[in-house]
């Protein structure tokens, strides 16, 4: 975790051999030039969480990206490090204070580009613009990102306006805080960083890569519980297989995500109400 007295990031530049298990969160090596996520949160112990597992965890360990949780409580007011207060105008709940969050944001901004295109500052909020695969691709090409994990009734609007914070939503639902959403956003972005997944082709063929949902996938055994793999996938005819997969992707997208289907048709100059056989 990081605060004004404890600068620390996670990831490494060179391997270190040890006979003792190494804690990712305890490692303070700095990664030069790697994509970095700074996360302002009341619960820095929530990180890396699932981000420390599987391919994202391996990439973090290799130094392909870096993680810096920033403890909002360390910037709080008074003896008890208060970070929130009652809403102006009355109402239920509490609101994160602008002055406290401003101190955290100023701390997080140290050493980062001022250009928001190179280093966005995002607030995980249910009223934000929907987070998309296209936005994840944009973030993966930036130098890094600062994420604000909301709590209580939200964040004082003045700090959002003053710092040019972009509000982002993962969907039409409400969580108790932004930590889970932040991990999801980071995961979606980190997997697009070169060398993280290893197989770049898998990214090109997955859902949302061309405004289409992914086609159905199958593997061994060829027959299971009376269900068989479609014959065409066992034909060895790569041209027919590719055409079948595109057809299935179009069918699924038209059926399940009309919004994506309209965008796809617009890109390919097709009538979204045509192709009745789909």
Provide structural commentary.
The protein has 278 residues and is α/β, with parallel strands linked by helices. It has 2 domains: 24-190, SPOUT methyltransferase, trefoil knot domain (Alpha/beta knot), CATH 3.40.1280; 206-267, tRNA(m1g37)methyltransferase, domain 2 (Trp Operon Repressor, Chain A, Orthogonal Bundle), CATH 1.10.1270. The protein has 8 helices and 9 strands. It has helices at residues 54-62, 98-108, 133-140, 157-163, 179-190, 200-205, 238-256, 258-267; strands at residues 35-41, 65-71, 84-85, 95-96, 121-130, 144-149, 166-169, 223-224, 227-228. Strands 2-1-6-5-7 form a 5-stranded parallel β-sheet, with helices on both faces. Strands 3-4 form a two-stranded antiparallel sheet. α3 links the parallel β5 (121-130) and β6 (144-149). It is elongated. The termini are far apart.
**Biggest sheet, spatial arrangement of strands:** 2-1-6-5-7
Multimeric status of the protein: single chain
Biggest pleated-sheet summary: 5 strands, parallel
Sketch the topology as an H/E string, one letter per element: EHEEEHEHEHEHHEEHH
- Work out the radius of gyration: 22 Å
DSSP summary, beta strand count:
9
Write down the CATH topology of the largest domain.
Answer: Alpha/beta knot
CATH class of the largest domain: Alpha Beta
CATH architecture of the largest domain: 3-Layer(aba) Sandwich
Molecular shape: elongated
Fraction of residues in H or I helices? 25-40%
Would you tell me the overall average pLDDT?
Answer: 89
How far is the first residue's CA from the last residue's CA? 51 Å
As a percent range, the share of strand residues is 15-25%
């Amino acid at each position: 975790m990081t605060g004004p007295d404890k600068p620390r990031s996670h990831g490494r530049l060179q391997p270190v051999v040890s006979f003792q298990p190494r804690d990712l969160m305890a490692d303070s090596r700095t990664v030069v030039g790697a994509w970095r996520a700074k996360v302002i949160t009341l619960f820095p112990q929530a990180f890396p969480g699932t981000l420390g597992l599987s391919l994202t965890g391996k990439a973090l360990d290799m130094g392909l990206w870096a993680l810096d949780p920033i403890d909002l409580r360390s910037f709080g007011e008074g003896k008890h490090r208060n970070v929130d207060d009652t809403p102006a105008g009355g109402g239920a709940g509490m609101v994160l204070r602008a002055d406290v969050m401003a101190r955290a944001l100023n701390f997080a901004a140290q050493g980062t580009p001022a250009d928001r295109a190179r280093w966005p500052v995002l607030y995980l909020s249910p009223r934000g613009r929907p987070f998309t695969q296209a936005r994840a691709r944009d973030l993966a090409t930036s130098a890094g990102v600062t994420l604000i994990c909301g709590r209580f009734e939200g964040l004082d609007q003045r700090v959002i306006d003053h710092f040019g914070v972009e509000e982002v939503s993962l969907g039409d639902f409400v969580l108790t805080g932004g930590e889970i959403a932040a991990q999801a956003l980071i995961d979606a972005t980190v997997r697009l960083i070169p060398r993280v997944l290893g197989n770049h082709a898998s990214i090109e063929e997955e859902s949302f890569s061309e405004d289409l949902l992914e086609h159905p996938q199958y593997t061994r055994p060829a027959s299971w519980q009376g269900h068989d793999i479609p014959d065409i996938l066992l034909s060895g005819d790569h041209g027919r297989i590719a055409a079948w997969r595109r057809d299935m992707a179009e069918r699924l997208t038209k059926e399940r995500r009309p919004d994506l289907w309209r965008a796809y048709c617009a890109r390919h100059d097709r009538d979204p109400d045509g192709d009745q056989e789909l």
